[in-house]
Every structure is written in C-alpha cells, then in structure tokens.
Amino acid sequence: MVSRVRPFRVVSIGDLVVDVILSVPQLPVKAAEHQILNGLQLEPGGAGNFLIAGARLGMEMTALGAVGEDIFSAALLEMLAGEGVGVDGMLAQPEGSATTVFVLEEPSHSHVFLGQYGQGDDVLLSEDWKRRIEDADAVQVWGYSLNEARLVVCMLAAAEYAKDQGKMVVFDPGPLLASAQPEHCQRLISCARVVLCTEEELAVLGTHCQVAAEPTELLKLGPAAVCVKQGQDGCRVYTANEMIEQSGFAVPVVDTNAAGDSFMAAFVYGYLSGWPLQKVAVFANAMGAAKVQKFGSGRQVPTVGELRKVLRDFSVDVKF
Questions:
Q1: Measured CA distances, 113 to 43, 181, 255, 289 (Å)
Q2: For the chain, which residues make up each domain, given as ranges?
Q3: In contact, 35 and 25? CB cutoff 8 Å
Q4: What is the pLDDT along the chain (320 residues), one digit of tens a residue?
Q5: What's the sign of the alpha-carbon dihedral 94, 188, 270, 314?
Q6: Which residues pair with 141 in a beta bridge?
Q7: Whole-prediction pTM value?
Q8: How far apart are CA 47 and CA 9, in angstroms?
Q9: C-alpha distances in angstroms, 15 versus 23, 140, 144?
C-alpha cells in the first residue's frame, strides 16, 4: 500500500443485507422439480460487499444502519467485524430483523434475488451518526435503502448533512430504484458528488429525475462525476469536462454477484486518492474482474493479492 497519514474513512448508510447463497443446478426453480444444491453460503451482501472490499483496500470502513436481534443479524455483524468493518454504530433493534436475500445461482452464472426487507422502528439521524459523517472522507448511500421503510428518512437526512459538511457523497442507485419515490431519488442525486450506475439504472434515474437518460443530464443536477458500469465491457466515466471510456478485462467468469460493489469500493479508493479518472476506471475494472472469478459475496470479494494478480496478468502498472 502507498503510505498515508491515516486511512481513508468511508461511512456506508443502509443496504445491510444477509445473503443466503444457494448454488442450484439450474434456473428456474419449479414446483415439484426438486434439486440438490451444489453449495450454500451465508455472507454479508449489499453494502457488506462494498464495506469488506474497501477494508481490504486499506480504507477505514464504517457501517451505519439497523438490524434486529435475530440470528441473521448477529451473524451479519460478526462477519463484518471479523473483516475489520466498524459496526459499533449499528442499531440492533430488539423487535427488528435483518434484511435477508436468498441468492439462487446456477452454473451458467445467472442468478435471481429473493429478498425481504428488515423490519423495525423508524431510525432518526443521531448525533453519533452525525459525528461519524463529520469524520468521514466519503459517505456511501444506496438506492436500495430508499425502499427500507425504517431507514429512508434517516438516509436522506444523512446524505444532506454530509453534503452540508462538504463530504464526498457517493450514490449507488441499485436494481430496485424503480420502486422508490422519485422525490427521494432527486434528493440523493442533488447530494451526490459521484454516481455509479448501470445502463438500466441510468434509464430509471432519468425517469425519476425527469431528464433524458444521459450521464451529461445527470451532471447538471449536481454530481461531479457519473460512472456507468458495463460489466466485462468496462465502464464510462463522465464529468463536465471529459468522458473516459475504459475497457474491461477478459477473465473467466464464475459469479457476477458482488462485482459491482467491489468495483465501487475500488472506484472510491482511487477517486479519494486523487488519481486521474482513467487510472480510477482501470483500477475499478480490475477489482470487478478479480471478483467475477470467485463464487459468492461478502467475504468472497477480492483480496489485495487477487486484485494485484489481475493488474499483473494484464501488465497494468497501478501502485496502491
């Protein structure tokens, strides 16, 4: 790692998920057509992928959100803490539960998510969470949490507080943005300095924000940069002054689950480092390529050694 006075500090708000990963012989799963699983894993999903990937890159990652006191919640917090993610600011609600997603994956790399949002009392933006935001270099917010009833008001307030404090707010719209309220989406866009999305999510952002589904139009709403993730094809990064198109890495694909979250952790690391956007894009693409070669999420996101192997195999010189 490049030496630094202190690690980058990143706070992630919401989208804390327990992934129950079921490796099935084939999809779809049909009634009365029974299958024997090829494997089963319990892992942190959603923001957990991002948090663990960021911690492995040497950043100081903090999870803020709400869980319950059920066995899934306890397992989630234990796994995150075991990976060096700060969880002491998490709320464990006595009558609450963790958001849980069953991930069905088949050998052809296709997968489907079957999720249930966690339940619990509404969360307010506390003085403790404000202090953590004040100490952060970046604050990550999630479109997924715009559908988390107990957390949505708090996350919106946190994003606006972070912007007021001059913090870098990073927004990941996620695959369920279409069911969020457009007004909430607009508020997050106005707070975000960086937006990372897929082509499909870009179309939903355009609809919710009442603009053309173009990165250049989103930039007019407040962000300094919009990154469009394209999987194995790489990514495109837009600012007011330039557009960077960076191809991906041709690697064997085992599992695409958690690749986008891993990509995002590397993007945030590079962006905070002040690297040129081309270098940031290469680095993030390499992180995604390292992930798709592994099965699972959470603790299966890439190690630094696996990331460096991708860079080395493709003769890319990025020091970090």
A1: 14, 22, 14, 22
A2: 9-15+61-67+87-94+121-313
A3: yes
A4: 455 678 999 999 999 999 998 999 999 999 999 999 999 989 999 999 999 999 999 999 999 999 999 999 999 999 999 999 999 999 999 999 999 989 898 887 778 889 888 999 999 999 999 999 999 999 999 999 999 999 999 999 999 999 999 999 999 999 889 999 999 999 999 999 999 999 999 999 999 999 999 999 999 999 999 999 999 999 999 999 999 999 999 999 998 989 999 999 999 999 999 999 999 999 999 999 999 999 889 999 999 999 999 999 999 999 99
A5: positive
A6: 171
A7: 0.94
A8: 15
A9: 23, 10, 6
Reading the block at residue 206, the tokens are 């355009």
Query: Cis link prior to 175 (omega < 30° from 0)?
Result: no
CA distance 129 to 141: 14
How many residues make up the chain in this entry? 320
Distance CA 276, CA 101 (A): 36
Three-state secondary structure call for residue 34? coil
- CATH domain 9-15+61-67+87-94+121-313 topology: UDP-N-acetylmuramoyl-L-alanine:D-glutamate ligase (3.40.1190)
Residue 301 contacts residue 258 (beta carbons within 8 Å):
yes
DSSP lists the bridge partners of residue 44 as: 18
Rounded to the nearest 10 degrees, what angle do helices 47-56 and 71-82 cross at? Answer: 20
